Structure formats: C-alpha cells, structure tokens
Amino acid sequence: MNVTCISASNIQQSGRANSTSYRICESVVNAVLSHGMACEHTIIDLREYPLTPCIGCGRCYDTHRCACDDAFNRIYETVMHSDALFIVSPHYAPIPAKLCMVLEKMEQITFLHWGNDGTYKSEVYGIPTGIISHGGGAAWALPEYRRMVNDTIANALATIQLRPVPFNEEWRAGIALPVHHVACVSGSPFPVQEYEWDDLDQRIAAYVAAVMASLPAIGRQEAPQPG
Q1: Spelled out in words, what is the top-level CATH class assigned to the domain 2-218?
Q2: Is the pTM of this model over 0.70?
Q3: DSSP letter at 179?
C-alpha cells in the first residue's frame, strides 16, 4: 500500500523540524504504520517544489500533465500511485498558495475531460483522501477552520474525483486541530504556536483509522457526479 501526505505550509523559515504541517504529516505516517500494514509512505513538502499557477492553456487535455510545471507533474504522479492521500493545510487565506496551485491544476486536468464526457474517470479517481487543517486558534476556531479550509479543499477534491473521507457526522470533510498557546516573540513578526502533541497525535490517529477503514469499502468505486 502506498500512502502520500502533503504538507501545504508555505513558511520557509520553519524548516521541517519546526513546521507544524510537516509534524502532522509525520504523525499521520506513524499512525498508518501502527496499523501493521505493509506500507510505503511519502511526505510531500510543498515548500520544496517551485510550483506555478495554472494559466489555462489547455495543453493538459492531451497529455494529462501540465506543459509548464514539472514540479506539479512530479506531485501528480506520486498522488496517482497512492492508495490513500492526506492533505495537511494551515489556515491562510483561506489555504496556502501552493496548495491552490496543485488543486487547480488537478481540477483542470480532470474537468476538461469530465465536462465533455460525464463517464470520464480521472487518473486519481476515487483515492480516499484525508483532510487535516490547523491554525493559530484554540478549540473555538475549529468550526471556522472546517468551513474555510476543510470544506474549500473538499470542494476541489470533488471536481478532481478524489474522495474526501469523513471523520464523523459533524466533521464530513476531515478534522481540524487546535493550538494550545500562542506567544509573541520579541524582535520577530512570527508568534510561537505551542501544541499539545500527545492530544493531537491521538486525534490524528483516530482520523487515520477512519481513512484506513474506508479503503476496502470505498476503494475506487462510484465517482461523484459533475455539477
């Protein structure tokens, strides 16, 4: 089984060691491995990819790849060969720019064909996808993260024909994680966000279990309908 986790943070200065998004991806991988499955895993750190926006040239219609962005094509190939995908996104405006670029190009590749043929199935059709959001707000902010981040990503996934996996009846588009404490740092424009990682790891593990449980039931069955 191949599992891919996308860390969508844009913040270069944090590096992997201090990136909340990357740390969440590591927790996802650990939770997957704890299920005892034979598993290959990849963490895609979008900060390492020089992505460019879609320009709507339409050349992807024939090739199913972006004619202008090899970095995107590498990500797309990895996602294509995944049995499960996780997207970890901080709350920006509402989601990070590079994640927007990845989603809009996947959408373009799929929709150009789907719009002409309602039976079309994309190369990433039906791959179960977990969505995990986070930000600088405590528990009170989680419904807003769900609305602005999780739902935004899930709407894009519907066009791409990836399949978001719900956590429960309330959280139909993944989960959101709260911050424990935010502190200002003298001389830096960036606040320090502190997390209760033992608690978050448990939340992540519970959601990963839901995604893993969905694999035999969901597989790559019915695609969502356009429109």
Answers
A1: alpha beta
A2: yes
A3: -
